[in-house]
Specification:
Radius of gyration: 27 Å
Order of helices and strands: HHEHEHEHEEHEEHEEEHEEEHEEEHEE
Strand order of the largest sheet: 1-11-12-13-16-10-9-4
CATH topology of the largest domain: BirA Bifunctional Protein, domain 2
Largest sheet: 8 strands, mixed
CATH superfamily of the largest domain: Bira Bifunctional Protein, Domain 2
Distance between the termini: 51 Å
Structural class: alpha+beta
CATH class of the largest domain: Alpha Beta
Number of helices: 10
């Protein structure tokens, strides 16, 4: 939830944010005026009560004071009902306003305004025309798009043989790398509650992107009917490990990593990346989440970015890092770095990881706080999240960057210990 004191800062995002902010400010001004009026009415009611206590109950003055008290009470009741509505409407509107950009975030309107921070590695060279991953995978018999469509529908894929083994290898390689770097491994449930999605900012704004579960009949008490969703990212589960909690400062920072299947309806992506593994309804990802004090969060963001880069460097994949501009950042982020891997089959860089500092935006929604000193007032933590990295897109990058003229694919050396020493994927 955006800190209301930062309403002017969020205007840097552009788009329709200005109208949202104007509407919220109008509601908030009405709420504050009404709150002041109610305080005045309550003071009048207290005065009427005091006068009545000193008057003869049979006197005309007592009757007048009683009538005044009734009128004041009726106005207060009416005002309190209106105030409740204004507070609800204000909170609902506030929940749709994105986070304010950090001062270091560059201004811009689209991905074309994202400056490149640095580039790692070089583009591979080929003596033949490189193919896109869907052609490579189908020729090797390891990506079965037809079976996925028959079993479930469009944007679902069956991974077979080498692709299945490559998926397991990547998950283990990424988790081993992150846990050796100080992250605690977590294996979370794939189903989350509405409140958890609200806490990390997926709801209410992105309701159409979620896969909602509808329970038939009466479920057990701990599984409330029609309140459950398939998780779109393990960021939801890992961040909500501490929802509605107050941590001690010596418990920070908390660093978590998890593999999890992810599910997204991709409601706003019709017609985009319809071929291959780039944009699927179900995909696998290793996630990183940090919960920190405000003073250390930006140092932790740089560390998280480097942790994601370490995965790609270990796999020998050429990539670049870009800083997202104000118009291209995600809803909850105050600052984001995107890692974009080179895909020779598509002759383009494509996003493979995003690392974001959400500052206190998620923590205010999920009520995650810490106490700087034993008796000091609790403050909101800062939360960070990053892909460490997306498994499907890493398979895409390996197939396209390590393809050979005979149709085979070299297995990166870092993954061979996880694949029984296998050095090459062949038909």
């Amino acid at each position: 939830m955006l800190d209301p004191t930062r309403m002017d800062d969020v205007l840097r995002r552009g788009g329709d944010v200005g109208q949202l902010v104007t509407s919220w400010k109008d509601l908030d001004a009405r709420r504050r005026r009404l709150q002041g009026d109610l305080d005045t009415l309550r003071a009048g009611r207290n005065s009427a009560n005091e006068r009545m206590a000193k008057l003869d109950k049979k006197s005309a003055d007592f009757t007048a004071a009683r009538d005044e008290l009734k009128a004041l009470s009726a106005k207060i009741k009416e005002g309190e009902a209106e105030l409740s509505t204004l507070e609800h409407d204000s909170a609902s509107l506030l929940a749709t306003i994105p986070n304010a950009p950090h001062v270091s975030v560059p201004d811009g309107t689209s991905e074309h305004d994202n400056p490149v921070l640095h580039v790692w590695g070089t583009k591979p060279t080929f003596t033949f025309a490189p193919k896109p991953h869907w052609e490579i995978g189908e020729a090797l018999g390891i990506l079965d798009f037809d079976a996925g469509a028959r079993i479930t529908g469009a944007r679902f894929t069956v991974l077979r043989k080498g692709a299945s083994k490559l998926t397991r290898a990547l998950i283990n390689y990424m988790l081993d790398t992150h846990t050796s770097g100080g992250y605690e491994e977590v294996w979370p449930p794939a189903i989350v509650r509405r409140n958890s999605l609200r806490g990390t900012g997926q709801l209410p704004k992105f309701e159409d992107d979620q896969f909602k579960l509808e329970m038939r009949g009466v479920g057990p008490d701990h599984l409330p009917e029609n309140d459950l969703y398939l998780s779109p990212t393990a960021e939801v589960q890992l961040t909500n490990l501490h929802n509605d909690q107050i941590l001690d400062v010596d418990q920070l920072p908390r660093r978590y990593t998890a593999y999890a299947p992810c599910f997204r309806a991709e409601a706003g992506a019709a017609g985009r990346d319809t071929r291959g593994l780039i944009r699927q309804h179900q995909f696998d990802k290793v996630e990183m989440v940090k919960i920190t004090s405000p003073e250390t969060s930006y140092a932790e963001l740089e560390g998280m970015r480097q942790d994601a880069e370490r995965i790609l460097q270990g796999l020998g994949l050429h990539y670049r890092v870009v800083t997202l501009c104000t118009g291209d950042m995600g809803f909850t982020a105050a600052k984001t770095y995107d890692l974009e891997v080179w895909l020779p089959g598509q002759d383009a860089f494509r996003e493979i990881s995003s690392c974001s500092n959400c500052e206190d935006f998620q923590a205010r929604r999920a009520k995650i706080r810490y106490r700087p000193e034993p008796k000091e007032k609790a403050r909101a933590v800062h939360t960070l999240n990053g892909s460490g990295v997306a498994i499907g897109r890493t398979i895409v990058a390996i197939l396209e960057n390590y393809q050979q003229e005979d149709g085979s694919v070299i297995v990166p050396a870092a993954l061979r210990p996880y694949m029984g020493g296998l050095e090459r994927l062949t038909k």
